[in-house]
Structures
1.
Amino acid sequence: MAFRVAATNPRPSSQLEYEREALDPIGAEIVPVYAEDERSYREALADMDAVLLGLKVAVTAEVIAGLRRCKVIAAGGIGVDKVDVEAATAAGIPVTNVPDVFTEEVADQAFMLMLAVNRKLLYCHQMATTNRWSEAYGGLGSMPKVNGSTLGLVAFGNIARAVARRAQGFGMRVLAFDPYVKPDAMAQIGVESRPLEELLGESDFVSAHAPYNEGTHHLMSEAQFGLMKPSAVFVNTGRGKVVDEPALIRALQAGKIAGAGLDVLEEEPPQPSNPLLSMENVVVTPHMASYSNEANVARRRRVGEEIAAILTGQRPRNVVNRSVLERLALV
C-alpha cells in the first residue's frame, strides 16, 4: 500500500512540487486536507501515514489520539507551538522541523525592522511621496545614532547570533540573555551575557528570538517593558505569544519605549482594530521574515525529505522530540 501524506490546508497556489521530489520516489501520495475545525482534522487525518503541517493547523492531543497510522508530523519552519509535542511523544510520533534554512533571512528582517523604526522609514517615505518633502526634517523628532548603541538579544540561538554579526558590523555593542548558553560561548563571538532585567535596562534596541513554550509565554510583559529605556526600540521576529501584546501597546502609548518592529503578533492575522497597525512608531510585517526565493525552496524540499526518511525507516535530520527515536527502528 502506498504511503499517504496529509498536506493540511496547503496554500491555494502551491502544487507541492518541491515536497514531492522526495516523496514521489517512495510512492507516497500527497493528499490535500482542507479543514477548519478539530473534528474535521481528526476524521481527515486518522488513516494518514504522515502529516505535513500547513496553514491554520493545530495538532492537539485529541487530534493525535485519533491518528491510527501516523509515523511523523512535519513542520516547515522552526516553531512547533501548534503541535502538542508531549502528546505526540506519548504516541511515539516524531515531530520534525526545519530550523536552519532561513537563519539569514530572519536576521535580515530583524535588523531591517530595527533600522526602519529607528530611521522612521515609513514617515519619511510618506513625506517624500505626498509632496511634503520640505516638511519632513522638522517632524523627525528623536533619532538616536545606531553606531555605538547597544543591542540586547533575548535568546541566543542561530538567528540571534546572525543578528549579532550584523549589529557588530554596524559598530554596535551586543548583549544577550539566554539561560541555556554559557557566557564564555557568547564572549567568544564578542557578545556580553546579561540577566534579562539588566539587558533591558542597558539596551537601546531589544530583539526577541525566544521560542514559544510555557516558560516563555509573555516573557516580555508590563514589568519588562517598564525596564527599557524610553528611547529604546523593541523588535520581535520570533513568536507572537512571547510578548504580552496589550502590555506592549500600553508601553508604546505611554511613551515607555520609543517604537516597535514586529513580524509576529499574538493573533494572526490581527484584527483590523489592533492599535499596533495604526501607530506611527510601529512597523509591522505579515510573518514573512523567513521568506526568500532560496529559503522557500530549501524549506519545502527539507520537509519532504524528513517525511520520506521516517517512512522508509531512516533517521531524519531534525527531530524536536528526540526521545521518540529510541523507540523506533530507524537507521
Note: Residues 178 and 188 are 15 Å apart (CA to CA).
2.
Amino acid sequence: MRVRSAAKNSDIVYRDLHKAIVTMELTPGAPVLERKLTEQYGVSRTPVREAVLRLVEDGLVEVAPKSGTFVARIPLSVVREALVARRALEEVTVRAATELSSESQIMQMRAIIQHQQEMADAGDEEAFHQADDKFHASIAAAARYPGIWKMIQQVRIQVERYRRLTLPQNGRMPMVVKEHTAVLDAMAARDADAAVARMNEHLDKLQLDISIFRDLWPDYFAIDPSLDEKLFAGK
C-alpha cells in the first residue's frame, strides 16, 4: 500500500512540474528545489526525486554537478526538428481532411476559430492555446487520422515551451486566428493544394520567428553550434 502511495505522489509531483515547465510558469534556468517540493507536497524526498528524474529524461530538467537542479533551457535543435516533423504530418492531415471532411465538421472548426477569436479578444492565452490544439486535432479527426495528432503531441514538448513565448507578443493571437481561417477557407473550398500551402505558411511562421525570440530571451535557449550554425549565421 505504501509503495502505491509513493508512486502516486511521484506522479502528482511529475504532472504538476511538467505542466508548469511546458506552460512557462517555470522558466528556463529556474531552480528546482527538492526541499521546497517535499514541503509543498508534504511528501518524502523519494517521490520528488523520482519525478525529477522523469523530467530529466523528458529533457525538461537538468542537473548541474555542484550547482543544483534547474529547469532546462529550450534546445533549439529539438524545436526545429519537431517543427519539421509536424509540418510533414499536418500536410497529410490537411490534404485528407480537405477531401473527406463533412460540412458539419467544417462548421465545427469554424466554431472553434470563433471561440479562439473570443479568447484572443479576452487576452486569455491558456484558453486560446487549448482552442488552437482543438482546431488542429479536429483537422486530424476529419482526415480520419486521429493517431497523427497523437504523434505530433509526442514530439512537441519543447515546441510547446517556445510557442508559449510567442503568444504574448502584440498581434500574435489575432494573426494565428487569421491563419487558421485561411486554412479552413481553403478546406471548405475543397482546394487541397491551397489548404496545405496555408497550413505550411502558418507553421513556418514559428520556424522563421525562432531567431527573433532567441534574441529576446537568450537565456531561455540552448544552442548546439554544430546544428544551429545556419540558423544564426550573420548574427
Note: The longest strand covers residues 61-64.
